[in-house]
Every structure is written in C-alpha cells, then in structure tokens.
Design goal:
about 300 residues, alpha/beta, Rossmann fold, eight-stranded mixed β-sheet, two-stranded parallel ribbon, about 40% helix, SDR family NAD(P)-dependent oxidoreductase, SDR_fam, plasmid, oxidoreductase, NAD(P)-bd_dom_sf
C-alpha cells in the first residue's frame, strides 16, 4: 500500500507504451483522467456512448496535449450488443490493454429500462462494466502489470443490495437505485480482486471514489433540487479535475495494491488529497460479493475467464 498523504498528477509515472481504456471519457472525471494519462504518454481509448462528443473531447485533449495518442470507441454500457461489439473491436485493435477505468455512469435518472430490460442505472453503472471487464479480461491479463479501476461513490454507504429486486422491477426510487449501483461497483471490484488472486493472475483490481465533485451527473435531478444545488455547489464540491485524483492514483501509483479503495482523505471523504479509504460495511461481505457476481453473470451472459 502506498502510504504517502500527498499525491498529485505530477506523481504519475511515464505511461509510454501502455494502452488505457476509459469509459465515459468525453466529459467530467473521465475526460480529465483520459487527458492526464495521455499527457504521460499512454495511448488512451475514449470509450463513449456518443462518438460525436467523443471526437470533440479528443480534439480538446489534443489542443492541450499535442502529443496525445487517442482513439474514440463507441460503447453504450446500457446496451449488451454495444458492449460486446466495442470489446471485440478493442481486442482486435490492441494486443493487450494495460488499464481499464470503469468510470462512466448515470445518476439519479427517472425510471427507465434498457433495451435488454434492465433498470437503467444498475445496467449502466454496474452490469455494463461487469460485462466489459469480462470481455476484455484476456487482453488485460496479457499486459505485464494490468489494472482494472472501478469508480464507485461515497454514496455506496447508503446502498443496499436488494437481491430479489436488483433491477428495480417491483419498486423504484432514483436515489436508492443509484446508491445500490455504486455499492455494486465496489463489491464487483473486491470480488474481481479475490478471484484474480485465487487464479494467480498478475492483473489487479482496485476501486476509487471522487468525493463530491462537480460533474454533469446531477443533470437528472428535478429542476428545483438542481437549482438549489447550484447555489451551494461552490461550497460543497471539488472540481472534476480534483475529483479524478483518487481514480488516477489507483490507476497509476506504483505502490497501489489490488483490493485497495481510494478516495479523498478529508474528514468526511468529500474533499481532500487522494489516498486509501475504508469502504462502508455493506461493501465488506464476501458472500454478498459472490451473490452479486453470480447474478451479474446471469443478467449479462458474460463469464470472466478466470
């Protein structure tokens, strides 16, 4: 475990010769993560649902980092067909993948079902990333020091894994559904770590959360709440550039270890320098990890080749 209490983008080691895939890299945390990895020499794949926005994001990165090596890949995490097609293209394009950052997400959305029939937040935030990781696992294991970093949220502490109703079919609450999906992100990262260790793989799995960061995720809030939030945002929120630091540290710090969880080290974990933090109690049940993994395999049809 890396014990340094201070860490910034200046501490990112050279990433030349590596390939990184960042989901949701056209805005917010994903955009800043992609830019910093490219600045350090990585070939970064911007895996995005809207390729026009992805191309615009890539142009912005190149304007700030002229040497950036970037690829835009269409990937709609809510669509199993898109996830499979995107993963297949990535496997054919790259001999190995050194880093996968499972970052993209949707927050506090109205009740909606994906084309596959799953609740939108659970499908996008968890199931899509579960499937993508499994489909890219051989490419990740082919890297000498591969990593998977899954972005969770401080709000996972308010989540509960409702196994009889993971898909929100019986009842729906936008906040409860989001919290559950972020709890699922963290449980998946921990169970992936456990299974990788058991298989003897060199690939490692970590998780991170950004604290309270100013991104576009709150766009699905009701207008009155969104307006009230904009008043207090400057007092409560970190910038997206600061919020990305825990994920970047998990992705690049040579001292980071599999199974660790990174977040802001401030008193409430909403702000502060990035470092190892403790997950909530609900995220620490290995039996729940296993149950979620098996349900995710069933819902996605993807089995991780471990």
């Amino acid at each position: 475990m890396s014990t340094r209490r201070t860490w910034s983008t200046a501490d990112i080691p050279d990433r030349s010769g590596t390939t990184a895939v960042v989901t949701g890299a056209n805005s917010g945390l994903g955009l800043h993560t992609a830019e910093e990895l490219a600045r350090r020499g990585a070939h970064v794949v911007l895996a995005v649902r809207d390729t026009d926005r992805g191309v615009a994001a890539a142009a912005g990165i190149r304007a700030r980092v002229p040497t950036a090596a970037l690829t835009v890949q269409r990937l709609d995490l809510a669509s199993p067909a898109s996830v499979r097609a995107g993963a297949e293209e990535l496997r054919h394009r790259f001999s190995h993948i050194d880093l996968l950052v499972n970052n993209a997400g949707v927050m506090w959305a109205d009740r909606a079902r994906t084309p596959a029939g799953h609740e939108l937040q659970f499908a996008t935030n968890h199931l899509g990333h579960f499937a993508l990781t499994g489909l890219l696992l051989d490419s990740l294991r082919a890297a000498p020091r591969g990593r998977v970093v899954t972005i969770s949220s401080y709000l996972h502490r308010l989540g509960r894994a409702d196994f009889p109703d993971l898909d929100g079919g019986r009842r729906y609450n936008r906040y409860r559904a989001y919290n559950q999906s972020k709890l699922a992100n963290l449980m998946f990262a921990f169970e992936l770590h456990r299974r990788l260790v058991e298989s003897g793989a060199h690939l490692i799995s970590l998780a991170a959360h950004p604290g309270l960061a100013a991104t576009g995720l709150g766009r699905h809030l009701p207008a009155p709440v969104r307006g009230l939030g904009s008043v207090f945002a400057p007092l409560l929120l970190q910038s997206a550039a600061t919020g990305m630091l825990p994920g970047l540290r998990a992705a690049t710090d040579p001292g980071a270890r599999g199974g660790e969880y990174y977040g802001p080290l401030g008193l409430t974990e909403t702000r502060g320098a990035p470092g190892v933090v403790r997950p909530g109690r609900a995220a620490c049940d290995p039996e729940a990890w296993r149950r979620l993994w098996e349900r995710s395999e069933h819902l996605t049809g993807v089995r991780h080749p471990l």
